[in-house]
User: Fold this.
Amino acid sequence: MRIDVNECASLLKEHNNILILTHAHPDGDTLGSGYALCRALYKLGKICSVVNADEIPAKYGYMYDDIVPIEFKPDFVVAVDVATDNLLGELQGRYHINLCIDHHSTNTEYADNLLIEDVPAASQIIFKVIKALDVEIDSRLADCLYTGLTTDTGCFRYSSTTADTYRAAAELIDLGADNGKINRIMFETKTKTYAKLERAALDSMRFYDNDRVCIITITQQMYRDTGTTEQDTEPIAPLTRGIEGVEIGITVKEKADGTCKASIRTFESVNAAQLAKAFGGGGHMQAAACRIDCNIEEAVKRLVEKSGELLK
Amino acid sequence: MRIDVNECASLLKEHNNILILTHAHPDGDTLGSGYALCRALYKLGKICSVVNADEIPAKYGYMYDDIVPIEFKPDFVVAVDVATDNLLGELQGRYHINLCIDHHSTNTEYADNLLIEDVPAASQIIFKVIKALDVEIDSRLADCLYTGLTTDTGCFRYSSTTADTYRAAAELIDLGADNGKINRIMFETKTKTYAKLERAALDSMRFYDNDRVCIITITQQMYRDTGTTEQDTEPIAPLTRGIEGVEIGITVKEKADGTCKASIRTFESVNAAQLAKAFGGGGHMQAAACRIDCNIEEAVKRLVEKSGELLK
Assistant:
């Protein structure tokens, strides 16, 4: 059932033991949404916890390093920023999901209650829910929400960023969000191992269809050579779209089992979700993803072919 | 004389032939400020023009490509985003400057009237002046102001960015600023040749002093191999500072005569200008430059040595 922000706040108020699920390979928006909501629910005296299928990259530590995780039997389970239940990774199927708060138009409506809005970051919806919960927003909570906004908009750079996103950011800075620190952590500082991976990724960059398609390939060997894991690849995808003239940028990542995952980035001229959908994936207009059950060469071939069709 | 926003608007209203000066090597903020003000003055029926000492990079064309420059005898001259009059380049000394609108705390107060505010972009002050002029802000004018805000804040990333900057951006998007397009032009798109140079630069990256010093070297051969020139190296320097743990990042560029130029970037812990000064150069706390009259290997050796002394 679709619900609005106030109905969502009422539902949360009615329950006392609330478990929050984020998507696997957690990013700034799912974690920012999860920990912001968790902090708000604490203020209402609820028992609450945020869980992920995968390890959280250390750089996000400032969002939760003062929170002690507890074990409890949840009476209400909320998924935040999770478009489909298989994005829960290993947590898929483990819980009955009572509420989903999400900003993906491709949401598969797997939860009892759905608060879905077409905004650039799930944190922007969570901000409204927290206001409706009527709790005081402190600087740490503001940090979480700001992190979601800035990471899902590429530091307010993507065209999906609206005036409301900027207004939300302004409010959060007024409430104490440390925008300078957060943006430096998220966008300015690379680890040495990541820098090595990025260099290898740039070396793999190839162009197709009169340079309108750009593909980066990341192999398991590259992870071994550079001391990185798939977790480190998040900032790679936007690089494919950053070359003049490129309309479709794709990062193809080899998985341990030899099959592939593709992250697709486009500009307005091409619908990234449409391309992903051709391979059973999904996402947004300008950022989408899919799995492809074949090796990396074959995956590139299929993606180039489908991209060519879309560009016609 | 220091004046406020309303006094500034009154002064502009009193005059009819207004010349606007931007600084030499014009950037997004000085041009955004200049063309926004020019467009606002047009709406009041003024004769107006924006002039620069240097050529304007083509990417800024959307701010002025519908404006036909005219020749006239100005009765009022305004400098925007110009901290000292020698930053006017070849235009220095050519005009008596009646008004300066600027955001640099180092402003030398060279104009009759001064509207100086400590905000991250001059365009943020110009926005207030235009509101005080009470003209309608159309989407092209909004584009100019947004360009100033986003370029001088590194796309709202730097810690100097305030809640008011975000609020101004929100208002400008409401007024029609094409934030997605502008940020793509300013921050996302690299030419293929620049991307090649960047890759070669990253390959040259070396670390010293327990990884606290990072040096990139750019040779004349690299320009030849990638089809680039020294003009293309501007975005390289910040890359040295972007690796975790690095306190001093240096880009050493070989000149055609075999001697070198060094661009230094630091974080708060080290004064970049102090390091540059040891080689007869200068600059700011976190960005400075110097020339070194020797070959690239020797220059790196000397810079590493001096850096080590500063880090002690």
